[in-house]
Design brief:
There is one protein chain. The chain has 93 residues and is α+β, with helices and mostly antiparallel strands. Helices cover 51% and strands 14% of the residues. Helix 2 links the parallel strand 1 and strand 2. The longest helix is centred in the C-terminal third of the chain and has 16 residues. It is globular, with a radius of gyration of 15 Å.
Length: 93
């Protein structure tokens, strides 16, 4: 699996002065989990994810991230149904 297999092609972005409520609305409306933050020229400067908005405790966030990244980084098999759902939410085929 490579980036193009799971990436979103129709990118939704926000600026640094976009209200958090608006970002949450965009995530729900577009069925995405993060948006890039861009400057006035459209260059990416940051990213806001649903995890940033949820505000989990740091230990929970690290445990979840460690599991997820380890699974992908070590090339472990990922459930095909899960991959299909990623493609669905990303608007892929």
């Amino acid at each position: 699996m490579i980036a193009r297999d799971v990436m979103t092609r129709d990118v939704v972005s926000v600026t640094s002065d976009t209200p958090v409520r608006k970002i949450a609305s965009l995530l729900v409306k577009n069925r995405i989990s993060a948006v890039p933050v861009v400057d006035s020229s459209g260059a990416p400067i940051a990213i806001v994810s649903e995890g940033d908005l949820i505000g989990r405790r740091e230990a929970e966030r690290e445990a979840r991230q460690d599991w997820w990244l380890t699974t992908l980084a070590e090339g472990e098999a990922v459930n095909p149904e899960f991959l299909a759902s990623l493609r669905f939410y990303a608007g892929g085929s």
